Amino acid sequence: MKYFYTFLILFFCMPVIAQFSGSNLTELQYGELPGDPESFGSIYNKLNLNYGYKNFKFSAGAQLYQTPYSDRNYFEPAWINANYLNKGWNVNIGNFNETIGRGILLRSYEIPGGLLEDITFRSKNYFYRDILGGSVEYKNKKYFVKGMWGYSLNNVIPPTQDFDLRREDEILAFSGGYHFYKQTFEASFLKVKNSKNEASYGLGSLSGTISPSLSYYTAYSFYLDGDFENYEASNTYALYGSLNYAKGKFGGSFEVKDYSNFLIGTGINEPPALVKEHTSKLLNRSTHVLIPQNERGIQLEAYYQPSLFNTFTINYTLADNSFEEQTFKYREVFFEATTSVGKGTDLKFFIDYAEDPFKGEDDRISAGAFIEQSFNNDKYGAKLESEWQQFERDDSNVQNIANTLTFRKASKIYVSIISEVSTDPFLVSDSKSKKSWFGGSLKYQLNNKHSFQLFGGERRGGPACNAGVCYEVLDFKGVELRWNARF
Question: Are 229 and 212 in contact (CB under 8 A)?
Fold first, then answer.
């Protein structure tokens, strides 16, 4: 902690000609969460500071969480970084993010504004996964080389726990690549060590353009060596490929995956999931979560854009998971159309069909329609989002409904009314036939640096996905205030 405070002193004492910036997120809550006997108040705060001077950049951040429960509370100087960037060199010391093979070997990330609250530990922390250590990279027009070492963060475990639990995986990695004729070949090596195991992996990838409208990416990763018990190297691999086309009004993509025993360490890698990430509330909550230990599948998507304001999209997803003699096949077909009608009227419609044996959901049908209307030269507006879903589970019919009505004044004030209804037996008590959630929110955009958002009522939790990362959101009933600031 003393190094963090030393950094802050130096941070503010450096020459004023350097560039200074920062951000702060504050969340106040009072209400009920699952498993707690009564309502309680809490405060979460995340501060991030950035300082640039010539070819150097410095950053530091801290977060805290305070509740009436002492075992959930903490203050953590969470990250500190020094970066040097000049003439092809990129050097990091401290906390940094890195991805190898599009996440097949390693993926670190930050979900802006995202907060994670695990049901087991019941503490809240910022939604990110980084590496604490150092990295060196050099690149030019022909080739690049990179090396890194550090401890990867397991962000499911909150700052209330020991360092050894949160950063159990020690990693050592090297990557190198060569560019030729608009193609790129890359080879990578990763060694992971923790208290239980030690293993090494290799990866080779080839990517580039076949024509101005056609590009591709292929990667194969494999198990090299380690001390895993009963580990078969021939049955430990990850294969991924993608083909993308875009020309004029048409475009599309084709992706294929084949993953076997490829959960590295405590989960430092996240291979491409090949599952469409939906903006729809119900579909996002119903998404299939990748199982890298055993999953094969494909994803196809195509779009047609006849004009600037009209787009048609179709997506097909197939995921196959086999465990001993049982096979689970997740299938999903999605269609969406967006258009503008008249002056200031935007419409979007979607329909989706899926089979999800993992969740026991047969013949799942989802549909939704969004309409947004602006008034008085866009000074005012209104938006209605309505979604419906039904499926069969254990000979019972389940329905979910979600509606959101939003009114806005310019881009300053947004007032929303949110309601959800479900007949899912997993959520409904024996004495009722359905469960309802009702709430409202008010967002005030003071300027381009400060925004406030107030929520009151009851909010439904469940799975959620953002930037390819899926996590669990807890149910909440109460009042919540968020303040986002940049300076």
Answer: no
